[in-house]
Design brief:
The complex is a heterodimer.
Chain A: E1 4-7, E2 10-14, E3 19-25, E4 32-38, E5 45-51, E6 56-59, E7 62-67, E8 72-77, E9 86-93, E10 100-102, E11 106-111
Parallel strand pairs in A: 2-11
Antiparallel strand pairs in A: 1-3, 3-8, 4-5, 4-9, 6-7, 7-8, 9-10, 9-11
Chain B: E1 5-7, E2 10-13, E3 19-24, E4 31-38, E5 42-50, E6 53-57, E7 64-68, E8 74-78, E9 87-94, E10 103-104, E11 108-112
Parallel strand pairs in B: 2-11
Antiparallel strand pairs in B: 1-3, 3-8, 4-5, 4-9, 5-6, 7-8, 9-10, 9-11
Classes of the chains: A mainly beta, B mainly beta.
Amino acid sequence: GENVEQHPSTLSVQEGDSAVIKCTYSDSASNYFPWYKQELGKGPQLIIDIRSNVGEKKDQRIAVTLNKTAKHFSLHITETQPEDSAVYFCAALLDSNYQLIWGAGTKLIIKP
Amino acid sequence: KAGVTQTPRYLIKTRGQQVTLSCSPISGHRSVSWYQQTPGQGLQFLFEYFSETQRNKGNFPGRFSGRQFSNSRSEMNVSTLELGDSALYLCASSSSGGAYEQYFGPGTRLTVT
């Protein structure tokens, strides 16, 4: 079946450095790719999303890039801060049934 | 604007029982989706309701059902609980509909013993 692979499963970076999380999807017809941040005890929070008609989108310290040919998209966080520590999930919208397929998550640890 | 609220936050049930979870979406949002989150399977889509109609359904057995009321509040019911139903059940609402720009509640942690 269709799936989304997310790497790495854990990422530890020094405060102030950049973090990059990558996802690969299998459904070439997918056209919507959101990223969610989940803190302990909370539900996922949408932090940025991108549609297939653009290659990059930025929102302050967060950016997402999409390569439709290679079927992968990435989350970039610059100037990381302690409050960025959380689990991050990528997802892709299946064209066949309009359901999100989720990556397994990346635990981001920001070291002081 | 108030966020998505879910009640109860925690629930402990015994195998064979049934359970009902509740979700109140963000005011003005007509789409409500439900997800199951487990360490092993991650986030999996259960179903989506829009204007009181189920518009989409994931691959879960018929023991999982839901409904939506005229005020967009939604309930999810699981009958004949199994140990494997232990999970965090998340509700998400959207003004755009479907999977677009979803706002999640804090979830209900269900433990089946």
